[in-house]
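Dissemination and training. As part of the outreach component of the grant, students in the summer workshop were shown how a complex can be specified as a set of sequence lines and then modelled as a single object. The example used during the hands-on session is reproduced here so that future cohorts can follow it. Participants entered these lines:
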Amino acid sequence: MSRDVGLQQLVGVDGGLIRFGADQPLTLESGAQLKGLEIAYRTYGKLNPTRSNAVLVCHALTLDQHVASVNPLTGKPGWWSQVVGPGRPLDPDKHFIICSNVVGGCMGTTGPSSIDPDTGRAYGLSFPMITIADMVRAQVMLIDALGIETLFTVVGGSMGGMQVLQWAADYPERIYSAICIAAAPRHSAQNIAFHEVGRQAIMADPNWQGGDYAKSEVRPEKGLAVARMAAHITYLSEPALQRKFGRELQGDGLSWGFDADFQVESYLRHQGASFVDRFDANSYLYITRAVDYFDLAAAKGGTLAEAFTAARDVRFCVLSFTSDWLYPTVESRSIVRALNAAGARASFVEIATDKGHDAFFLDEPVMHDALRGFLDAAGLARGIA
Amino acid sequence: MTGASESFREIVSLVRPGARVLDIGCGEGALLELLTGERRVDGRGLEISPLGVQACLSRGLAVVQGDADRDLADFPTRAFDYAILSSTLQQVREPKTVLAELLRIAERAIVSLPNFGHWRVRLSLLARGRMPVTASLAEPWWSTDNIHLCTLKDFTLLCEELDIRIERAAALADGRPARRIDPASALENWRAEQAIYLLSRSGSS
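and obtained this result:
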């Protein structure tokens, strides 16, 4: 179902699809414009009369707007049900929680698999390059349409954390607090390298056809699955893989061939196979590129602290995980250092876990307690406890 | 720790209302909360234990998990009016560096420490020939975090060496309220169980 913009009654429904008219294009960082932008989003809870309890959850690379409710495509529970829900740190009884699919995505928001209004066919590689800042600009258009001036908090992990930092840099006056989990102020060489492996796997799949696979109704599933398998390893940790699988075999013995002998192989193959059912290969190319291009300091004159000079009144909470080697603690510390240098109110906790990068959406009681403590105190100060 | 409340009282009395304060080794945030309530300070904390930081978060305090020996470098120069190091200097690996860092980050430093020159400590060593275990040095030698203990005299000499001016000094003993003292007094070096110093750079206003 789609609605036109500007309808205040959008607040109160559980989300849906919002379409912006041709007079409201999204101007991208590259200079290109996206006309007829559609944003798919979900909301939980109600906006209070003073409009002070809105929370924006920014999702990671391949996640979606279904934060705390069943994903209609996969039938699986919301990806952050541990944190968002009744009695959880983000509680629909207190907060009005919004999550939208990022621009460039494939869960309803305009992306490379959407139809280009100028040609009547899927964009494919003619879709403009997008950045983290563009994702945030689209979110601003959404909260404007929802009639929200200031967010009580903007929160996200991984690529979602990058969006949080971008919010703090570009729209500090529109956020009361910010929570950045397992993220970095820029993508490292190693991380760009892993993304490139994934993209090359997709582009090496003959079904990819230069990104124009929509017209022949095939999909580069093999390439996308390999991309996911490689990426998935980076979301875990060596000890977690060892603990979960060790050298355990699938069957009674070795196959003396190239079947999935080891449980870890079978697990990765399953991760790859189930991923292609819910994700679009071109979206994967565009979104990984957006993350590669992310370098907040470079965009703000070379000094990260410069990015936060206008965010002095924002309450920040930065969290990292000891076993995260994709966005290690040193990255979060560089964020905290910059926030300190800018004179912002920063809190930082490093959470001990062996679950790696993905710990941010797993059962991590210490993280949940930290989030609860931070949000409750901020809520009290904001008058929405 | 005995006398913590008296020690906090004295620290609060040294801080100007509305000041920017960094509490290093802030624990669960009790002192920061007191300073926020009584002096309306703009407070920040640095704490090594994740549980301590978490407790601070629940109190609405802005606290960063980190180590005084390693992470003070992350704070910009003159970002604070006061840097507070309460009963922690004797636990850091590089007390000289940490002291210098305090007075880089802040205009003034407030440092409290246990006095190894206190008469009970001297008596314990002299009479029993054993490492003292007293109210302000509560742990036996093999489990204590105190690796750089000093006397009031030692500390005064270190400040001289580092060109640090002692603006005020107060002594605590037996849980009684803090007393202003002459930091160079040989008698106080016997009497004070703990001392609290207000420090600044020599030559600064």
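The mean pLDDT of chain A is 94. Students were then asked to discuss how this feature might be tested experimentally.
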